[in-house]
Amino acid sequence: MADRVRTREREAEAEDAGARLYEPQIYDYAVQEMDRALNGRIVVKATERFWDMHRQANSKRYLSPFEPELQNTATQSWEAFLQVFPERSGRHRHQGGLIIFILEGVGHTVIDGVRHEWEAGDLMLLKMRPGGVEHQHFNHDPEKPAKWIAMMYLPFYDYGGSEITQLENSPLFDKWMVKVAEREAQMAPAGGVKRARNAK
Questions:
Q1: Are 62 and 115 in contact (CB under 8 A)?
Q2: What is the pTM of this model?
């Protein structure tokens, strides 16, 4: 009987001391997502998006929860981007779950050491597997860059671990970085360049 009294006293203390009024934020999140689905932006214009040069290729993102300008779209569950590369992409590894539709060009992709040929109009899938999928894309026509749109369902991506490891840069990225360095060197004051060299 004494043990029951002590238990009740402890429960009462827990209710009175250190308690707070809590309205779970998931309620607000659910309301925001419903509002997004009903009233969010339906069309994302190509002219509104930027080309992003990165280690894998040159891309233009149309859907992404990570882009400030895309926070008002009708869905935030997808990453969708256009990608262009004249020679080959970078080589990287992630958990897969990617759908790639080829818009222009002829080429092949090496996935975990296996070569897969593709051309405009084809659909390519990157499977999901533990440890990630290593892949690199190659364009066969030096006169015409390959172009595709890729889509990833982010809940699958998150479930797979959200890991991306860049193993090799795209030649396009390396050439672009050389141009950036040259422009910065031209814009730098002569004294600043000398100081930088002396600092070495």
A1: no
A2: 0.74
